[in-house]
Amino acid sequence: MTEGSQQKRVVVVGAGWAGLGATYHLAKQGYDVTLLEAGPYPGGLVAGWQTAGKSIEAGIHGFWYPYRNIFSLIGELGINPFTTWTRSSQYSPAGLEVESPIFQDLPRLPSPLGTFLYTQFKRLPLIDRLSALPLLYAVVDFDNSDAAWRRYDFVTARELFKDFGVSARLYREAFEPMLLVGLFAPGEQCSAAATLGMLYYFILAHQTDFDVVWCRGTVGEKIFRPWVERIEKAGAKVLPKHRVTDLIIENNQAKGVVCGDQVFDADAVIFAVGITGMKKIVSTSASLQSREEFRNLSNLGAIDVLATRLWFDRKINIPRPSNACFGFDATTGWTFFDLNALHDEYKDEPGTVIEADFYHANQFLSLNDQEIVSIVQRYLATCVPEFRQAKVIDSSVIRLPNAVSHFAPGSYRYMLPAKTNFENVFMSGDWIVNRHGSWSQEKAYVTGLEAANLVVSYLGEGTPAKIIPVEEDEPHIQVARSLNQTMRQWGKSILPDFWLP
């Protein structure tokens, strides 16, 4: 800011990856930033908390190899919150199905050949795996553009795989399990566009993309706490337990953010909340309800999650620290993690500590805690038989209705871009339309930086945040996409458009 000028005021709503990212950058640029969080602590569902002296969190979150911007932030903060790169396994009721190597340790092959050859399938026949080859056309055709999203978003993932000749067994034992723990819903409920975007970013773009590290404790303790300290040191105010109910709008500009009886004056506003949180704000806000783009958010949905943490009375040998599971329930995917191997505080625990998280867990939320713990132990024992003899000595069950974004078929047209129809109101989060190409926590953080850059541009002060792009497509993918675009343009010039918008 120029000497003697009044600081411009920015209000950020939501203290997850997006909100903290936007707040941190704008505070460093000299803005008067107030971060409002409805929950009792920054971080929202990701943060985690302590209860009875033990760490609890709403699910475990991985940090994948292509999270270039988050890893850059971690370096800037000077912290060391992560494990080493870990191997993962996949189980079904029949036992171990897949083991993944650490892909960066193996000779790099053109994508997706390395993923195909190095992934260790225990039961899935080669002929079924080969049935995925025609799907590569859709991977090439989907380039994350607006046109590509509109082409594929009305198609379900199940239809996509069927239309491209993927075998029923490959779909059932590989692709749908990925959807259940990646997009958190069965294939008939997932947009084909979101499916292609997620699969490409995490698995298919480059051989190393599926490599993952985990936080060595709760994300709140290991990352958000030192980050918030740095944010407050930069001059921003972080205010938990402040639920936003409305905006004060004058001449198409937000002049203030309303929290019950409090009003926070603003020269710009950034929303950084999930779909469910945003819908709650719209439901109480006459200003937002006056705009169709915000009313249309009622067409978007979210997925129920069940997060459990179990303490067992003995050490159990678990081959891999992170594991995904399928086939136990028709429409639910689940994961389990060996916290003795991942979290610092449990390394010397005399027993075994397991985190088991269930996605699209609608049918479980009405059960009582003991019923849920019994189901979790039975499922664990199917994967690792030693759990049958173990006794649960403590447990935590957290029900999270409508907790994660649901990318349903046809939802793209209702998702908001970073710029809204209000001149100084900007959006961020993992469900916002953007062209960076990332997903999940990385996408949320990137959209927070993008929203901060829109504020810098709008208010005309400060330097934009540097956003690291996703790694470029490999040369053979670039050539294939260029040829595909040429053929598509040529086809449009001589053929009618057979696709509905």
What's the short version?
This protein is α/β, with parallel strands linked by helices. The chain has 3 domains: 9-51 and 218-300 and 414-459, 3-Layer(bba) Sandwich (FAD/NAD(P)-binding domain), CATH 3.50.50.60; 88-212 and 472-494, no CATH class; 301-406, Alpha-Beta Complex (Polyamine Oxidase, Chain A, domain 2). The chain is built from 17 helices and 20 strands.
How is the topology of this model organized?
Layout: E1 9-13, H1 17-28, E2 32-36, E3 49-51, E4 54-56, E5 62-64, H2 68-77, E6 88-92, E7 95-100, H3 113-118, E8 120-121, H4 126-130, H5 136-141, H6 146-152, H7 157-163, H8 168-182, H9 192-204, E9 212-214, H10 219-233, E10 237-239, E11 246-250, E12 253-259, E13 262-265, E14 268-271, H11 275-284, H12 286-289, H13 292-295, E15 301-312, E16 322-329, E17 332-338, H14 339-342, E18 352-359, H15 369-383, E19 392-406, E20 425-427, H16 440-459, H17 475-494
Helix pairs in contact: 1-10, 1-16
Overview of the structural elements:
The chain is an alpha/beta fold and 501 residues long. It has three domains: 9-51 and 218-300 and 414-459, FAD/NAD(P)-binding domain, CATH 3.50.50.60; 88-212 and 472-494, no CATH class; 301-406, Polyamine Oxidase, Chain A, domain 2. Helices cover 35% and strands 22% of the residues. The chain contains 17 helices and 20 strands. It has helices at 17-28, 68-77, 113-118, 126-130, 136-141, 146-152, 157-163, 168-182, 192-204, 219-233, 275-284, 286-289, 292-295, 339-342, 369-383, 440-459, 475-494; strands spanning 9-13, 32-36, 49-51, 54-56, 62-64, 88-92, 95-100, 120-121, 212-214, 237-239, 246-250, 253-259, 262-265, 268-271, 301-312, 322-329, 332-338, 352-359, 392-406, 425-427. The chain has an eight-stranded mixed beta sheet, sandwiched between helices. Helix 1 (17-28) packs parallel to helix 10 and helix 1 runs parallel beside helix 16 (440-459). The relative contact order is 0.18. The model has no long low-confidence stretch (mean pLDDT 94). It holds the Pfam family Amino_oxidase. InterPro entries: Amino_oxidase, FAD/NAD-bd_sf, Zeta_carotene_desat/Oxidored.
